[in-house]
Amino acid sequence: xxxxxxxxxxxxxxxxxxxxxxxxxxxxxxxxxxxxxxxxxxxxxxxxxxxxxxxxxxxxxxxxxxxxxxxxxxxxxxxxxxxxxxxxxxxxxxxxxxxxxxxxxxxxxxxxxxxxxxxxxxxxxxxxxxxxxxxxxxxxxxxxxxxxxxxxxxxxxxxxxxxxxxxxxxxxxxxxxxxxxxxxxxxxxxxxxxxxxxxxxxxxxxxxxxxxxxxxxxxxxxxxxxxxxxxxxxxxxxxxxxxxxxxxxxxxxxxxxxxxxxxxxxxxxxxxxxxxxxxxxxxxxxxxxxxxxxxxxxxxxxxxxxxxxxxxxxxxxxxxxxxxxxxxxxxxxxxxxxx
Length: 339
Ligand code: FAD
Ligand code: NAP
Known about the structure:
By secondary structure, this protein is α+β, with helices and mostly antiparallel strands. The chain folds into three domains: about 70 residues, 2-Layer Sandwich (Uridine Diphospho-n-acetylenolpyruvylglucosamine Reductase, domain 2), CATH 3.30.43; about 150 residues, 2-Layer Sandwich (Uridine Diphospho-n-acetylenolpyruvylglucosamine Reductase, domain 3); about 110 residues, Uridine Diphospho-n-acetylenolpyruvylglucosamine Reductase, domain 1 (Alpha-Beta Complex), CATH 3.90.78.10. It is about 25% helix and about 25% strand. It contains eight helices and 20 strands. The strands form six sheets. Strands 6-7-12-10-11 form a five-stranded antiparallel sheet. Strand 17 and strand 18 form a beta hairpin. The longest helix has 19 residues. Flavin-adenine dinucleotide (FAD) binds next to strand 3, strand 8, strand 12 and strand 13.
């Protein structure tokens, strides 16, 4: 086969936690033929596939014994309709660059999702969200290659079952569906979403007239609050915000009257995981080469030379403490790979 498959590749530069791991085989996928041929090559050799975008939401616990497919499929295409614009984007495009590009085209909706690392193809996996906006509001269709059906398949938004940091790609289709393109329906009229207090503070009560202003405000907050993975390797939020019933929230409020909470779908309540972790005293704590960021209790850091096992060990201690104290089980947000 005439495929640029590399052997024994160091994955440290391919995950934003900079965890050490090696791939037995690795290929950068830039077109559909490469995708099909490399999948069929891996299947013939009985090798497990790891589908990778920018590596900003994975924890590599060890070496990968199979083939890593780094999805780099390019392309952007816009069609204008009366009430919206349909944008078809290759899975390998950079998410943040897409946000900038849509604003240059006077297409709106993605401004609150600026500066989220990673690729467009990974965005539906956890239905990326920030500052009161979720990708789900804009997904029209997700295209991909089904490893079970061995053919290209198109899923509409409902079939993707996009939920709070969740989708079908984290369940039945986990590691079984290679997203090749995402079709988004964007607005041609700007509708600001300014519900988050941090965003209102950043804008200092100014009247917002453009999506660019919102994008700049979100970018400024993120740059001031979040550690840059190239300087302090991390994967963003390590734990999902738990969703609990109102009865459970009422019980907790008897002991913790100040517990922050927000409405969640289905009438339940969302509690910030950062508050729970902070209350357990973990913010800023360091254990060997890994730790919890001192400004963001949800962000775990590899201070250099940390391993996936070390990081997951610390995460487990945090989860145990939160469970003991609040009887709430924290779920990991990134996906864990490797033995
Ligand atoms: P990867 O880490 O490469 O992969 C993540 C998962 O998706 C893996 O399971 C992988 O197998 C799968 N996958 C990747 N590409 C494909 C594909 N083409 N087809 C099928 N499966 C695929 N997330 C938010 O929701 N909101 C935020 O505000 C946010 N902020 C962040 C800030 C920082 C500093 C960091 C480091 C992360 C942040 N994240 C945030 C998490 C992360 O950026 C997103 O989840 C992003 O979508 C991951 O993209 P990626 O290309 O890096 O995915
Ligand atoms: P923040 O603004 O300090 O808010 C703290 C928490 O309260 C967040 O978890 C947020 O939930 C919730 N919240 C605040 N105002 C809310 C409102 N009006 N309605 C509903 N929920 C509200 O959070 P932050 O840590 O600085 O992050 C800012 C935004 O960027 C958040 O949306 C966060 O999800 C996103 N972010 C995500 C990642 C990641 O890796 N997933 C990393 C960095 C930032 P939500 O988290 O549900 O929004």
